[in-house]
Structures are given as structure tokens and as C-alpha cells.
Amino acid sequence: MLTLVEEAFVPLRQAVSALPAYVPGARAGAGAPMWKLSSNENPYSPLPSVLAAITRAAAEVNRYPDMYAEELVGALAAHSGVAVENVVVGNGSVALLSHVLNAVVEHGDEIVFPWRSFEAYPIAAAVSGGNAVTVPLEEGTGRLDLPAMAAAITPRTRVVLVCSPNNPTGPAVHAGELETFLAAVPKDVLVVLDEAYLEFVRDPEAPDGIDVFRRNPNVMLLRTLSKAHGLAGLRVGYAIAEPRLAAGIRAVSTPFGVSHVAQAAALASLEPATQSQLMAQVEALVGERTRVVEGLRGQGWVLAETQANFVWFDLGEQTLERAAEAKAAGVLVRPFAGHGIRVSIGDPEANDAFLKVAASWR
């Protein structure tokens, strides 16, 4: 009988061992009912036409999906007003971000991004072998400091991530400041404009991402069907990029990364009749966002201007305590320890429950 003298183990890459954990929004467990406002989800159930497409596709899950999702790519290209050669789909925009960095970042290259911003950025940067260069947000506004981000670019910079609207704070970049920023970025540096919350933007100064992309070959767009389209559970994201870059992203993507069911649901959600219903839901959520923000300001809160489907509370060291109080009152929110709390816009009843919680914080 053999005895192990010492425990053997396979070491992880140092970059992997040091990765920060991606913290998902809290889920309601067993027990008292909870309003889940922690994950920026669309609170509405899938539309009947989308559910029907999911049901039909479920009967075919013994077959591999279309590897390159050609029908979906065509629909997304038509939806976005670009050529099919410009579109790449993936298992959510988070997966696509990783594919993008794997396609263009060499070991030791720099990736510039704002902070605090989307928490997948430092994880994706580290896994790619790149060096993260973080740039603080504007003090007190939650806005990206684009001049500071431009100043952070060095000869080693390969990618700059611009999250608009910024998750978790909410403001969108403005067209004029983005143009000034892009003029300062070297043309061999990729600028990723992350537009996950595009459909919720009502700021008249926000840029037209497609127009920016068409005029700047080093700009690519990241978009998702998880938010406005309500397909968070099926994971469908897409990138819009110049053809050579799109082909590179496609080459490093996970084979068959978007399931057959997800492709069918996405195609159904892009049908014109379904689109009009989905955008009516988005408009209702924007109306609820306005009502919630006005209610909070009436309570005395000073908030960052949100163009997304959430609001941000800059609470600093009070963050975890306030999140625990919200949970005790039946509302799940998303705390970022030491920074603040992000609260998704839900249906009116959930929003009313949160407004009561926010009033108690005052």
C-alpha cells in the first residue's frame, strides 16, 4: 500500500491565483419573499413569441447549434445597420470581452479602463496576460474622466475600455468628449465602447455608437441582449468591429458558444413585432427610473445621473451596513464594499419597496 509523503498539487498561474472574484447580484433564497434589485435584470417575463421560440428550440438540443450563428449574425447586422462581416456573437458580452483581449493583447500590454466600472474588466485583463491600468472616475459625479484616461495611454497600451453608461454608476459619456478623447488615442490602440445599457439612454448628448464606429476603425462596440431584451438567462452578446478584427475575435471564440435555444430566442426577440413590445417595456422602465430618481431626490439624495436601468449610491464605508438593512426589509441590492450600492430598476411594486428602504437610510 502506497503512502503519500507529501501532497502533490498543480500550481495555478499567478495571474489566476490573484484574480478578484466576480460577485454576482444576490439571489433570493428560501424563506421570506425578496425583491431582487441586485442584477440589472429586465423584470418582465419573456414575451409569448420568445417563449414559443425557446420551446420549439428545446426539442432540438440533441443537435449542435450553428457554430457561427449565421442567421442571428444576419439579424443583428440588419438590426444595427452594419454588414454581417462586422458582427460577432458570443456567450454574453463578458465572454466577448475576453475573446477581444485574447485576440489583440500580448503578455505585458496595457489595458486602460475607468474604475470603478464593470467588475469583469480587471478579471478579463489579468487572464489575457495584460496589465490593468485603472483611471479614477470624476470625483462626485460617477462620470468617466476621459481626459485622464487619454493621459494614461502609453506606448504599451493596446486596449482602452469605455463603459457607457458606466456600470455601476450610471452616467453616459457625451459625444463631444468622446470625439476629443478618440482624437487623442493612437490609431493602433483598440477602443472598446461597452454599450450594454444602450437602449435605456435618453441623454441627448450621448453619442451614436454606430456612427462613432463607422468613422473610427479602431473603435468596436460591445452590446448585449441580456438587459433590454430580457435574455439574461440565455447569454447572448455581440460585438461590432471592422472585418479583420471581427474575424480575429471569431477565431479565438469558444466553438458553439451560443446555444441553439439562445439563438432561437434572440432571433425571435429581433422580429419587428416583438421589438415594438420590448421597446415599450424599456420605455416603461425608463419611466420608472425617472419616478425612482425623483423620489430619491425628494428624500434629499444627491445621485449620479443615470442613463442605465439602475441607480448608484456613493455610500463608502456604510455600504455593507446599508445593504444588510435593505435585505432585512426584503430588498436585495448590489453592494460594492467600501464604494457604494447599485440598485436596479424593477417593477413599480419593487421600486416602491426600495424607496421606503432609501428613506430609512436618510
Automatic annotation (TrEMBL):
Domain Aminotransferase class I/classII large: 34-355
Entry's family note: Belongs to the class-II pyridoxal-phosphate-dependent aminotransferase family.
Record-listed N6-(pyridoxal phosphate)lysine modification sites: 227
NCBIfam families, sorted: hisC, PRK03321.1
Summary of subunit composition and partner proteins: Homodimer.
Domain of life (superkingdom): Bacteria
Protein name: Aromatic amino acid aminotransferase
Cofactor requirement: pyridoxal 5'-phosphate
Species, as recorded: Promicromonospora soli
EC number: 2.6.1.57
